[in-house]
């Protein structure tokens, strides 16, 4: 049986969704509280690292495969550059122009709400996808290195 | 005094890189040097008794952010710089660790004085 003991597996199966939910919270509230895309993405990757440590690498790879993780990685980068380019086109040729909502600071009612900062939450979501998937990929590949499994070992 | 301690931490990392022969210890020395520089940058923006430079709901509804808020808060620019530096050091640390693992697969040792054979 791969992974750790049954105590660790039970506790981590309770905790993993809480950690994932906390990462999503940090990403979505990144523009009004401390945190943001990078910190939330690291927490998302940490929930998968918890699964990887408790249940073994194969179980984590069944949940989030290498191909899907690399696709999420590229999707985050493309969303981020897309937001930047749309701002470039709509905002008088200034990069990362906040094209959705520019006057939110003048309005005291909508400031500090969840939807109040234009493109900044979208950028946070993109960075969270990128950081979470790529950090998961880094740790998965570092744990995948084993002695004797190298493909160029024979030559 | 604190800056001198920071410099001492950097010197410890530099000693570790220059003297040690184990590749993993060299990687640890590089990481210690990065953390010394990060600590130095954070301490440049520190102000004793300062508040966090975050404009919350209370500061916003009581009017615009005035000069006393700016006088009391710590400098946020080195913190943003150090956050970026931490991300980059994470990426370079993963690269260095994977280079160490591949080298150990090829040569069977971490000692840099024994990694001399050219194999292609």
What does it look like?
The complex is a heterodimer of chains A (155) and B (120). Helices cover 64% and strands 0% of the residues of chain A. Chain A contains 5 helices and no strands. Chain B contains 5 helices and no strands. The radius of gyration of chain B is 21 Å and the shape is elongated. With 120 residues, chain B is mostly helical. In chain B, helix 1 runs antiparallel to helix 2 and helix 2 packs antiparallel against helix 5. Chain B has a single domain, classed as Helix Hairpins (Orthogonal Bundle). The chains are: A mainly alpha (155), B mainly alpha (120). At the A-B interface, helix 5 of A face helix 3 and helix 5 of B.
Q: What proportion of the residues of chain A is helical, as a percent range?
A: 55-70%
Helix/strand class of chain B: mainly alpha
What's the number of domains of chain A? Answer: 1
Mean pLDDT of chain B: 86
Task: Let me know the average pLDDT of chain A.
Answer: 83
Instruction: State the end-to-end CA separation of chain B.
Output: 50 Å
Reported for the largest beta sheet of chain B, the result is: none
Query: Segments of chain B where pLDDT lies below 50 for 5+ residues?
Result: none
What is the number of beta strands of chain B?
0
Q: The CATH topology of chain B is what?
A: Helix Hairpins
Radius of gyration based on Cα positions of chain B:
21 Å
Provide the β-strand percentage band of chain B. Answer: under 5%
Summarize the structure.
Chain A has helices at 6-28, 37-55, 57-63, 66-90, 120-144. With 155 residues, chain A is mainly α. In chain A, α2 crosses α3 (57-63) and α2 packs parallel to α5.
